[in-house]
Write a structure and sequence with these properties.
- The chain has three helices and eleven strands; from the N terminus they run αββββββαβββαββ.
- A hairpin with a 2-residue loop joins β1 and β2.
- It has one domain: Sandwich (Immunoglobulin-like), CATH 2.60.40.
- By secondary structure, the chain is an alpha+beta fold.
- Strands 4, 5, 6, 9, 10 and 11 form a six-stranded mixed β-sheet that branches. The protein has a three-stranded antiparallel β-sheet with strand order 1-2-8, with no helix packed on it.
- The longest helix has 25 residues.
Length: about 190
């Protein structure tokens, strides 16, 4: 003979509390993983349908100040991030399709993180910062006729746990996770 047990009030309360805790943890985790900065590309100086210059646009998407560290060429530094332009190319005439990528920026310095952060660009809510480079400066110099797909990436500074703690205690927000822009498509005719 099997017993037909009904859940007790305490069991229902405990299950509901567990579900509520899971939902709160999930919301907190997704808020922590969401970046306070968005990255996009702004093409300019179109030559035969393809941009000669690309602007990496950092936009503050939160309701408080965010700081943007300087960017360095190709390798993120201890106090500087890195921007990189990626290319996927499909030629108009049969030849080898290609991929490319390059980076650009400024140098890193040897000061404490709280001294370094004083020179970082400040963005108020909704403000943006654009860093522009010639495609050739970013090692993306393809000029043939065909389809171009371009997108940008940002790598944050390689801060130590001690640096991160100091910034957190000082209430300084910055893009601490890698960022990626949407893909842009261009066609260069014959």
């Amino acid at each position: 003979m099997t017993e037909n047990r009904k859940p007790t009030f305490c069991t229902v309360v405990v299950v509901n509390l567990l579900l509520l805790s899971l939902l709160m943890f999930s919301a907190q985790s997704s808020a922590q993983n969401r970046s306070s900065v968005e990255l996009s590309l702004r093409p300019s100086e179109l030559v035969n349908g393809v941009p000669k210059t690309m602007g990496f646009v950092f936009v503050n998407t939160v309701d408080h100040e965010v700081r943007i560290p300087p960017v360095s060429p190709c390798i993120p530094g201890r106090y500087s991030g890195m921007v990189k332009l990626n290319l996927e190319f499909l030629p108009l005439r049969p030849q080898i399709a290609g991929k490319a990528g390059g980076c650009g920026g400024a140098a890193s310095h040897n000061q404490s993180i709280l001294e370094q952060v004083k020179s970082w660009k400040r963005l108020q809510p909704g403000e943006s910062l654009t860093l522009s480079y010639q495609r050739s400066e970013l090692s993306v110099s393809e000029e043939a006729a065909g389809a171009y797909e371009l997108w940008g990436q940002y790598q944050p500074p390689q801060l130590t746990a001690e640096d991160m703690t100091a910034l957190e205690h000082a209430g300084i927000d910055f893009p601490s996770q890698p960022l990626r822009s949407a893909h842009l498509h261009f066609n260069r005719p014959n």
